[in-house]
């Protein structure tokens, strides 16, 4: 059964021109699969997304973030009761207000009506100063993160935050595997993963990771993961797709931006 009455998809389209970012070449755009036209915003050329095993870690710690007022995003469990997502996922553009905590449901390991665990939000920690009405501006995109405190703890192993520097993350992304997984608008019932996608660098004027992964609406709040063997760590939270002078890209808020707030949220009370 479904964990909440949310059925629509939260669509947040952010189109902007990014400042110059780290000098990483844009990857070659692959042709469409079997000549089929891919008309999904954020998916360029061949669609590299494949289903992730929602019953296995780390994917079981990624969940659908459902809103009882309608719409969904993606989120990641980072503690027994703590969930990380994009701040704009908690704002209702129709009513121009923040949703109430009890209107938000996190469903871990969700797959076509089945799931590992479900929790209702008790309260939110929104990035200080974040203004959802100016969400398409770079200054707001760089603080588009939120921590959700659930009313009850979930029996799921959480995802750790990376402690690496940007240079270390860039190097690890080249030698290891960088992935993103989320509940996209076109695959809302299945966790879809882009394995081995590219981290291009960081925007120079703001703390924003720039990546070229196949993402679209509904994936906002999804963790950008570095995976090495049986280890996985969050390096950022995906929050936007964008058109730039160098071509379509996507952005994520890096861990360094919200690591302090996460430490406070995880501290014993």
Any overview of this molecule?
- The structure is a single chain.
- This protein is mainly beta and about 270 residues long.
- Strand 3 and strand 4 (about 80-85) form a beta hairpin.
- Mean pLDDT is about 85; it is low at about 1-40.
- The longest helix is centred in the C-terminal third of the chain and has 12 residues, at about 255-265.
- The chain has helices at about 140, 165-175, 255-265, and strands at about 50, 60-65, 70-75, 80-85, 90, 95-100, 105-110, 115-125, 145-150, 175-180, 190-195, 200, 210, 225-230, 230-240, 250-255.
- It contains 3 helices and 16 strands.
- The protein has an 8-stranded antiparallel β-sheet. It has a 6-stranded antiparallel beta barrel with strand order 2-3-4-9-8-7.
- The termini are far apart.
- About 10% of the residues lie in helices and about 30% in strands.
Q: Which SSEs are present, and which pair or pack?
A:
Layout: E1 49-51, E2 62-67, E3 72-77, E4 82-85, E5 91-92, E6 97-98, E7 104-108, E8 117-126, H1 138-141, E9 146-150, H2 166-175, E10 177-182, E11 192-195, E12 198-202, E13 209-212, E14 223-228, E15 231-242, E16 249-254, H3 255-266
Antiparallel strand pairs: 1-11, 2-3, 2-7, 3-4, 4-9, 5-6, 7-8, 8-9, 10-11, 10-14, 12-13, 13-16, 14-15, 15-16
């Amino acid at each position: 059964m479904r964990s909440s009455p949310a059925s629509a998809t939260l669509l947040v389209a952010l189109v902007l021109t990014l400042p110059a970012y780290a000098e990483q070449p844009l990857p070659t755009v692959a042709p469409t699969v079997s000549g089929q036209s891919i008309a999904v915003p954020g998916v360029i050329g061949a669609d590299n997304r494949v289903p992730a095993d929602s019953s296995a870690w780390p994917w079981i710690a990624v969940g659908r973030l459902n809103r009882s007022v309608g719409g969904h995003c993606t989120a990641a469990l980072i503690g027994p009761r703590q969930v990380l997502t994009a701040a704009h996922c908690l704002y209702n553009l129709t009513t121009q207000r923040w949703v109430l905590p009890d209107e938000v449901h996190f469903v871990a390991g969700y797959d076509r009506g089945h799931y590992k665990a479900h929790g209702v939000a008790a309260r939110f920690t929104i990035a200080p100063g974040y203004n959802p009405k100016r969400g398409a501006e770079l200054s707001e995109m760089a603080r588009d993160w939120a921590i959700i405190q659930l009313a009850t703890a979930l029996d799921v192993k959480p995802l750790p935050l990376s402690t690496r520097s940007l240079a270390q993350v860039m190097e690890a992304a080249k030698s290891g595997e960088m992935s993103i997984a989320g509940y996209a608008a076109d695959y809302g019932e299945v966790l879809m993963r882009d394995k081995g996608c590219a981290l291009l660098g960081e925007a120079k004027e703001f703390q924003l990771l720039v990546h070229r992964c196949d993402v679209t609406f509904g994936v906002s709040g999804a963790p950008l993961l570095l995976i090495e063997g049986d280890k996985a760590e969050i390096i950022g939270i995906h929050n936007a797709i964008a058109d730039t002078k160098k071509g379509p890209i996507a952005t994520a808020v890096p861990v360094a931006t919200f690591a302090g707030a996460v430490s406070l949220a995880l501290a014993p009370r």
